[in-house]
Amino acid sequence: MEIRNVAIIAHVDHGKTTLVDQLLKQSGTLDAHEEIADRAMDSNDLERERGITILSKTTAIHYKNYKINIMDTPGHADFGGEVERIMNMVDGVLLVVDAYEGTMPQTRFVLKKALEAHVKPIVVINKVDRPVVRISEVMDEVLELFMELGADDDQLDFPTVYVSALNGTSSLDPDINTQVHNMDCLFDMIVKEIPAPIVDTADGLQFQPSLLDYNDYVGRIGIGRVERGKVHVNDNVTCVRADGTLTKFRIQKLFTFLGLHRIEVEELDAGDIGAIAGLADIGVGETVCDNAHIDPLPLLHVDEPTIQMVF
Ligand code: GDP
């Protein structure tokens, strides 16, 4: 199965959550009995550890022969570091913009991060079903924002899909009457426009946690992209720590994402996004290597303030 890694970015209320739910529903990745209310992307049980707030949730859908990992992103400027680290894992973004409201402060903030990371943007004009929309003005605003933020020629050449995430319709044409009753325009755009993850084919594992999560049974989990090689459960590996020291450990569990769930797997392949358990104090930006190839990636910076989240 081919992989696509994409982040979804938007101003609050422009429809990220509704869009991911609709993609999940239409891809058939959700089990019939699953309640969207239990959804992972919007859970309120935010875990906080050492000042790193986990606001991002990952989900994955299957479409045709592709597994599409979708990373949610926090829109707030306080979490700029987290957005940057997510951009490090993906090859493209869906920039969701409300067809009436147009570009807003958080649209600018998250698009800036995406353009800086040189990932491929797809513009998703959402809520085209609203009684009053301003599609052509909104498109002008989007183009202007790309230019203001210094987009290069390739980025300026962004494709656009017009959708109603609520109704599950999509079109490549701004004319609302051309909407079809599925999200295939968007699915096809993702697999066509967002490049497959580039992986280093040299020997040796490289896995860099970009986010942390916590699980009662296995403790701290590092979520990241396998940059190189393969990792299996029970592998003996070495973590190159932030201070340059080495810590050996055994991979206890590996997880990938499917629908709203994190599922246990035996191995993770280069290019995929997954989670590693086995090192109780694994940190963001460190590199997990196999013992024979200690070859750390550049450290990722972590700039989040410690924030008490109240929900
Ligand atoms: P998020 O903050 O970006 O995750 O936004 P949500 O997905 O929670 O959506 C915010 C609001 O917009 C909710 O009331 C949704 O029902 C509504 N919404 C989302 N997509 C659409 C759409 O395509 N059409 C309309 N009319 N409303 C939508």
UniProtKB/TrEMBL annotation:
It comes from the Bacteria. Its main location: cytoplasm. It catalyses: GTP + H2O = GDP + phosphate + H(+). GTP binds at D13, H14, G15, K16, T17, T18, N126, K127, V128, D129. One of its GO terms (molecular function) is GTP binding. GO terms for cellular component: cytosol; ribonucleoprotein complex. Its EC number is 3.6.5.-. A 50S ribosomal subunit assembly protein with GTPase activity, required for 50S subunit assembly at low temperatures, may also play a role in translation. Binds GTP and analogs. Binds the 70S ribosome between the 30S and 50S subunits, in a similar position as ribosome-bound EF-G; it contacts a number of ribosomal proteins, both rRNAs and the A-site tRNA. This is Large ribosomal subunit assembly factor BipA. The gene is tufA3. The chain holds residues 1 to 311 of 609 of the full protein.
